[in-house]
Amino acid sequence: MTPITEVEGRRLALSNLEKVLYPATGFTKGEVLHYYATTAEVLLPHLRDRPVSFLRYPDGPDGQVFFTKNVPPGTPEWVTTAEVPRVEGPARMVFVQDLASLMWAANLVTEFHTPQWVIDAPGEADRLVFDLDPGSPATVVECCEVALWLRERLAADGIEAYAKTSGSKGLHLAATIRTASSERATEYAKDLAVEAEKALPRLAIHRMTKSLRPGKVFVDWSQNAARKTTATPYTLRARREPTVSAPVTWEEVADCRSPAALTFVAPDMAPRLQDYGDLLAPLLDAERAGELP
């Protein structure tokens, strides 16, 4: 029988709790749900008011992995949904606004991906992001070198950047900005990616052509487009182990000498949150927003 759990007055059916979702470590679906319940306090503010794209992997990363943007069938009526403009036409999408909605969504087994805008102003960016993606044999170590350059370059424009692991191979930089069109944010990010390539020609590249990327870090500026989404802070990823898109300190970035130094899994997060709190909390403070030049 599927257990029924009450979360903030909402009744949830949580299924297959013993199923192993991460074969490399034996991490189960029940442990996934526990992870999200215990990180909800820091995760929910980064999800709030942003339409969620789900990258689902209900049988683990070795099973079917697929994106869901529209409201999934069977979504409870109390889960917040809204019509969201999209290139192919408006669609109704989910908003994870509270703990009950988070646990319902986590039971689907999903990564959480969100855009750089909120529903009150679709297509008006309040975040700037860079997705630093290493081409083998480059690793997150090289991403850290590029990230440190970008941090200084953004600071020169009065924009304060923060870092998190992608939960995969790379690193994400994010900054809160005074609202600008997604087109303007994308243009600015591309300009800095081009500058990074000129300043670090053996290390950084701004072009998406895969044949150019081995041994270099692709500075993906395109994540700022209104239609694009980025892995939300603290989301688990569909990998062999339950890796997390984890906020990191700039000291950790500067000191990184091996990929293992910036690889974090679900059990790592409770002690990190105890030590650091939410390292990305400044992204939620509008008074710290920088203005695009």
What characteristics describe this protein?
293 residues; alpha+beta; 4-stranded antiparallel sheet; 27% helix
Strand-helix topology:
Layout: E1 4-7, E2 10-13, E3 20-22, E4 27-28, H1 29-47, E5 53-56, E6 66-68, E7 80-84, E8 91-95, H2 99-107, E9 110-114, E10 124-134, H3 140-156, E11 162-165, E12 171-181, H4 182-199, E13 204-205, E14 217-220, E15 230-231, E16 247-248, H5 250-255, H6 266-276
Parallel strand pairs: 13-14
Antiparallel strand pairs: 1-2, 3-4, 5-6, 5-9, 7-8, 9-15, 10-12, 10-14, 11-12, 11-16
Broad shape: globular
Report the major sheet: 6 strands, mixed
* Radius of gyration of CA atoms, rounded to a whole number: 19 Å
Low-confidence stretches: none
Q: How would you state the average pLDDT, rounded?
A: 96
List the secondary-structure elements in sequence, H or E.
EEEEHEEEEHEEHEEHEEEEHH
Q: What distance lies between the first and last C-alpha atoms, to the nearest angstrom?
A: 58 Å
Strand composition percent: 15-25%
The SS-based structural class is alpha+beta
> How many strand elements?
16
Number of helices: 6
Strand arrangement within the widest β-sheet reads 13-14-10-12-11-16
Helix content: 25-40%
Keywords: Ligase
Protein name: Non-homologous end-joining DNA ligase
GO molecular function, one term: DNA ligase (ATP) activity
InterPro entries: LigD_pol_dom (IPR014145), MtLigD_Pol-like (IPR033649), NHEJ_LigD (IPR052171)
